[in-house]
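Hi there,

I know you've been waiting on this one. I reran it after we fixed the sequence typo, so this is the corrected version. Both the input and the resulting structure follow.
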Amino acid sequence: MDRAQKREFVDSLATVFAETSMIVVTRNDGLTVADVTALRVRMRAAGAQYKVAKNRLAHIALEGTKFDGLVPLMKGPTALAWSHDPVAVAKAAVEFAKTNEKFVLVGGALGTQMLDASGIRALAELPSLDQLRGKLLGLIQAPATRIAGVLQAPAGQLARVFAAYAKANGAEESAEAA
């Protein structure tokens, strides 16, 4: 890499650090090209990015950002994964780590909050942003359905009372006629 490429790499990482809310630091010692390709496909499917980073250049890009606490985690062959949906990137990384022992979760950061590997795993157990949106929509729609049911209930009860009264009167009239 020449200086211009290094500067461009640092600038692109600095842009990522400014725009994202979650960074996962991984150690990828011994992954094959096929493994890394499979990981990148899984990350893209989750809406996340995965990039192998030179530690020195990543340290420069981290300076002055909310993720500057990640610097101690970046030792050895590391790579970064990030996404706007914090749960999606954590799930993708944890799922891949379960199937490949050479891929190790080191830690990460959610905003200014530093996370260790167990924190990343705990975050991966949460529902995704889309699942949370669906649940929220269901909660918002549920009261409207209940209100409609409550408004219809008195009319239904009134109709049942009239039907029971008519049936009772019909039974009395038929008993009197006999």
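Quick highlight: Helices lie at 3-19, 33-45, 55-62, 86-99, 117-124, 129-177.

Best,
R. S.
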